[in-house]
Specification:
By secondary structure, the chain is mostly helical. The chain has helices spanning about 1-10, 15-30, 40-60, 65-75, 75-99.
Length: about 100
């Protein structure tokens, strides 16, 4: 369970890691591999998931499935919460008009 939580936090922090983590890696790869500007966030996500995986392994907590699921849910967490709120608002709005 701790691996899931660590991965969710790492996924959630990916946009903040894009500059300080993704930028230097992209600069280091510049002469060897062509990296598109929009791929910097993907590189930051990969580094965050690598760190979460290492932390989960060192703490002996979590299987790869839960680490990956936590990372994905963390990455898309704000969008999922907004979608859930929108769904609930629509649902509450529709049910109050039929009574």
């Amino acid at each position: 369970m701790l691996g899931f939580i660590i991965a969710a936090a790492a996924g959630f922090l990916t946009p903040q890691l894009e500059g300080p983590v993704g930028g230097p890696i992209v600069k280091a790869m510049d002469g060897h591999i062509a990296v598109e500007p929009h791929e910097k966030r993907l590189i930051a996500f990969m580094v965050a998931m690598l760190a979460a995986g290492i932390a989960a392994a060192l703490l002996n907590s979590g299987t790869p499935f839960w680490v990956i699921l936590g990372g994905v849910l963390g990455y898309f967490g704000t969008r999922l919460v907004e979608a859930g709120k929108k769904y609930m608002d629509q649902r509450n709005g529709d049910s109050s008009g039929t009574s």
